[in-house]
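Usage example:
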Amino acid sequence: AAGVIQSPRHLIKEKRETATLKCYPIPRHDTVYWYQQGPGQDPQFLISFYEKMQSDKGSIPDRFSAQQFSDYHSELNMSSLELGDSALYFCASSYTGDRSNQPQHFGDGTRLSIL
Amino acid sequence: AQSVSQHNHHVILSEAASLELGCNYSYGGTVNLFWYVQYPGQHLQLLLKYFSGDPLVKGIKGFEAEFIKSKFSFNLRKPSVQWSDTAEYFCAVNGGGSARQLTFGSGTQLTVLP
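Running the assembly step on the lines above writes:
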């Protein structure tokens, strides 16, 4: 079965640079979630989108922005990168269109390292 | 605000030992409960979930969990662990309404010795 696809798998940037992470949800999933997992920490919710509209916002810095496109893929844009942004960034998707409870399925993540 | 507490940071067991990982949550309404497993360098994989109904849920790889509403708990169990169960285990919760984002516990690292 198709899974959540994230790209790139690894990304190395320097301070103050920008980065764009991409997420392709499971087909027919209408909701995308972004999480940040720092070293040795639990995943922290950043932001989510339902039907291309932002649905919830968590601990996402103002330097970050995200959007969901017409094909349901999502991009997380990160600017003015800081050392503390080094983390594993997970995308998850689920289907919530019929308001039924559906679990989130996670991608392999993008490991972002800031030098 | 919802929160999840996992009591054990690191658990070390020998193969064939029984496992129970504790999870307590704090939330003021209907909750959905999950256990995810994360093998080294891999993504989070869903082990099992509870939405409603039978409070004893069975998941993949022989894992099960019991939802005890009065104790706000959702402990994960497995009668006999294997070396391949070595991984980090996260308990997570989300609300039953429109806020579907997951709140995770701090995770429990399970090491199974051969």
